[in-house]
Amino acid sequence: MSSASPELFLALKRTESTFEEIPVIDIHDAHSKDPIARRKLADLIRDACINVGFFYIQSHGIPDEIIDNTVKGAKRYFALPESTKMELNIHKTPNFKGYTALLGENTDSTGLGDLHEGFDLGWESAPDDSSSSSESRKDGAMDGENVWPSDLPGFRETTLEYYHRVLNVGKSLFPLFALALDLPENFFNDKTTKPAAIMRLLHYPPQSPTSFETDPDGRQIGIGAHTDYECFTILWQDRAGGLQVQNTAGKWVDAVPIPGTLVVKYVLEPVPSHVYLILSPISFATASLGDQFARWTNDIFKSTLHRVINRSGVERYSIPLFFGTNYDVPLEPIPTCVTPGSPSKYEIMTAGQYVKSRLEATYAHSSAT
User: Could you tell me which residue ranges the Fe2OG dioxygenase domain spans (predicted)?
Assistant: First the structure.
């Protein structure tokens, strides 16, 4: 396999990368035995990663019933009294797991707090998986267990069932990302034996359509403009919409819910689903790239700025899973992404150290409350 230089990758970029829409990619051939089919799929992903940093995925294989059950569980959880939810306050854990109250995050450092509440969890063996080791994982800087509400029967089980389904989708994408970088398909195998995979259940109250009259700079929205911390994000979002991605011209492009897809953000509420899963009989999922991939690829793959503004007039729900490598993996540049003319741009640190530093910054303003 040839080894492409950063100059070659950049030469593959469109002349104007001011995208106006987000590509939809069918990942059915991710498991194809035909190397040419996998290569063609990887080329589509490479184009999306270099030019956009987001793409929708079709044929993700997650049954709508599992998505619907997870969303119903999220709605039940967020309907609990605030005092009950705060028993699992995320600041009580060393690894940022549990409940985040409304305005508890400030993703954009210039913002005034994010208008959503969330429930965060990390890797945990599936309840019905007898083959999993009973020993706790050791995740270094992000070490620690999940926390669960005690008075919500079935919540843990349905949430983890969806978690592991999306985790398998993420695992199937890593060989394609490797091919997209002209690396062997198994390049990431030893780096994802205990993958960092933080999933969030998110609830966004409706934001007034006239909110910009009192907040003209948009400093308090569903979630402020940001990039994600891990390698990539798989997102399910409901029909309320509200996700926006910024192109190179500074324009905010709507990542509208698309039936049968999830949204992938290069670094997955009831509606249709693209690597964004969305609530409805049809699911959407979206994928986006994150900062770890940007650091690994020396900025060849984009970690794209995005935000959420919920002016739909209804409650918005979404479920992102942030997929990263093992927390002890050093984020050093991939060989195909550096040359004497394109030296490494970032200080080397482990994936766990990077993620924890970003989470500490995000939650700093509410840590004393």
Answer: 195-325
